[in-house]
Structure formats: structure tokens, C-alpha cells
Amino acid sequence: MKDNNSKSVSVYISGYTNEKSVGIYQYMFDTTTGTLTPKGLAVETQNPSYFCLHQSNQHMYVVNEIGDFQGQETGAVSVFTRNKETGRLTLINQQPSGGADPCHAVCDATGNYVLVANYTGGSAAVFPVISPGSPDSSLAPFVSNSIHSDLYQATGGVPDRQEKPHVHSIDLDPIAQHYAFANDLGCDVLATYKFDRHGSGQLIPHSTFHFPKGSGPRHLRFAPNHNNFCYVVTELSNDVYMLEFNFHEGKFYQVQKIHALPEDFVGTNLGSEIDISPNGKFLYVSMRGYDAITIFEIDERTAKLSLVGYQKTGGMHPRHFTIDPTGNFLLVGNKDSDNVVVFKMNQQTGALTQVSSIEHVQPTCIQFWE
After folding, report:
1. Distance from C-alpha of 99 to C-alpha of 145, rounded to nearest angstrom
2. Residues 146, 182: contact at Cβ < 8 Å?
3. Tell me: the pLDDT tens digits for 286-323?
């Protein structure tokens, strides 16, 4: 019998496209049971490896992780609107991303800009939103594109991965969004920019935090209960760095470094996604190779991390995961085993318990859209 208090919310899952997967797919998620019900293809689009949602809840911005768009050596950013009755998506417009293989994007709080990280292109680009909040809102060409090869040197710590700049993520500070942060895997730097979000949208280089050679910083999350602290997962060294951001100086300082793999692990692994439980008590990091989620507790007073344990993800290569709107479930996309696994989150201990699993080809991004 269905729980009368249960609620179903829309969740969209995207990934690399091939003969089995052609774009972005919609599911309904039961927030009581943790089960996913497929609703079918939402839209066809090439290699939608990541997407973000506009604050108006009307538009989705998708990065198409490709290296050739309209005859240019660049990827694309696609804007879609949603039919609220069917959940299907309709393309509004596309823009060149400013570099090859865009892999990450974020919308600013004003709703006026979308920021994109170009991995192979090694740049961070800013796109103005035309008529934000309007049903016909579209995306203008980029107004700023910071080319990291003009600013930083690749470290070559891992020669086949750090031969040039590789911008893997772009984020904004959680207080006023006056700063933007770009993790560059190839240069082992976290670049801080001043972001003119109330004006021209320009990214102005401001400061850098340098990781040890061969670290490969990938993604970051700020602590919800401690806005001056953030955590960075490094893809190549499989560490989590706790950094303190001085908002006055616009600089990061290291507080803690903790390894995210068991001491006895032998083999190849790549750190991937990082996120924090809504209650701010636990941090989760996905490990591709060990194929597990590493769980850390966040100290209520100092925000430092201590290891809780590891949870196998029920598949291979957990590239991305997300937490549902209730904060009770964590959904993991196992790219190389073509499945999405749902875990119940223990609010007191941070432990994860598997409750369901579905097949989905090469999932790389999972986002709820209520």
C-alpha cells in the first residue's frame, strides 16, 4: 500500500551518449521508499555530461562535452525549458562554450549568469542570461573566458593527465558570490577570481591556492554550517583538503588534509564527486576504482573531518552522486556499470544503506527538479 505521506519528485539523469543513450532522461523519485520510476527520454542532446538549473525553476543549462561545435574547436552550452505537465525538455538555444569538453556549470544567485568550466579547453567562461525569469529566456555568448594557459603552468605530476590546464569545476562563494573558484586538475591550483555579477560578468584573477604536484583538484563544497570552510577532492591523489577562505583577502589557507582511500587499498583510483549532508554533519566523497563512497564526519565546532567509513556503491566508476530534497537519500551514478543506486542516509551516523537500483547507461549527472 502506498504511504499517503509519500511524495514523488522529478529527477533528471544525463550522461555520455551512444547507441543506447541519446540524451537526458526523466524519472520520478519516491521520497518515502527511495525508488526511481522511469518516465522516458526528456530530450535528445549530445554528451550532456553535466547540467544546472536556473533559480526561476524554468530552465536547465546543459554542458555538451564535445570538442567540435559548429565547426569550432569547442564544446557547447544548451538551454532547455521544461513542460511542467510532461517533464519533457525543449531546446531554446545553444552557445559555444569557449573551449573543448565543458564538464561543469553553475548558475549565479541573481539568475543573470551561467559559469562554465571547459576541461580540455582549460578555461572558465561566463554567459549572460537573456531575460532571466522569462519563459523564453536564452543564453547570450560568453562575456568572459579566462584561459588558464595564459595564467598558470601545468605541473606534469601525472604526465598523461597534467600535460596542460584542465579546468574541472567552477563554483561561487556561498555568501555574496563576489568570488568564483576554478579547480584546475592540470595545474594543481584552485584559482580564485573576483566575479562582477552585478555588472559586466567579468572574471578577474585574484589569488591561487597551490596543491602538491600530482594532486589533480576536481570538485569542492563549502560547509553549510561554516561558510568560510570548504572541502576539495583531488582526483589524482585521492585526498580531501579542508581549506579556510578569508573573504577579506580573497585567499584560501589549508587547515587539514585527509586521505579518502583505505590504507590497504592497492590499485588505480580516481577521486570524483563531493557533497555534504543538508544537516551539515557528514561529508561524502566518491572513489572510482575502489568503487565506494567515503564517509567523513564534520566536527560541529571546528569543521574538521574524521573518517566514518566506506560504502561500496553497488557498481563501477561512481562518477556522480546527489542527495534528494528531503536529505534522506543519496543517489549514485555508476558510469561503467550502467546503473544508479539509491542509499538511505542515517542522519545520526552518516551510514548509507542500499534500498534500490536501476539500470541507466553511463550516468554522469543526477539532479532533482521539483
Report:
1. 9
2. yes
3. 999 999 999 999 999 999 999 999 999 999 999 999 99
